[in-house]
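Q: Hi! New to this. If I give you a protein sequence and the SMILES for zinc ion, can you show me the bound structure?
A: Yes, paste them in.
Q: Okay, here:
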Amino acid sequence: MGTERTRRGQTRELDLAEAQALPLGAQQYLAALVRADPHNVSAIVPVPERDGHPAFAERVWIHVQLMQLVHDLNVPWLLALQGACTAHQTACATMHVGADAYLCPVHGDGRSCAALEYIQHALDAIAKQLASPEAFPPDAPIPHRSVRLFGAACKQIARVFLHIYNHHPALFAQCEASSALYARFRLLAERYALFPTDALPVEP
Ligand SMILES: [Zn+2]
Ligand SMILES: [Zn+2]
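A: Thanks. Here is the predicted structure of the protein with zinc ion bound:
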């Protein structure tokens, strides 16, 4: 018990060496990889190996990668956006990427959400879909029909990054410098052909 708890009595987070030594679930393994170095995206994105074999099925790995991405967008990205996106009333009164405007996919009533609302609604919807036990049964392989949700999630995540990139470039640069989350997303989309990366700018 003692090794798993800090002096404050909270459960301690596993470090990477421990994660590699234990038969952990994909989610914990990925979280440990990200904590070890979020900037090392080429170590984070590929399916890890154990004894020379993939440690997880590719679908399982993509699934946990997308859940982790949506989670990691909260801080610093969405937190920073809360101040910046509302301040730009003209560009961000609706969801824009450049000149293109998008209707919120969550409401079927044609209601137009402001960009910040759109982003929150879209990410909440993705998180809910990825956590759905019907689409992703906890004790069974991921069914083929659920794989299309990966592409749909990437389309929305790409739109969030592109809005920030196009309309809040300073915020984008600042958040990316500290988190490398966009680089992780771009590599994930490219490696598993989840989203056409020619639509995604390469960050210097
Ligand atoms: Zn905005
Ligand atoms: Zn909405």
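A: Residues 1-10 have pLDDT under 50 and may be disordered. Let me know if you'd like me to explain how to read the tokens.
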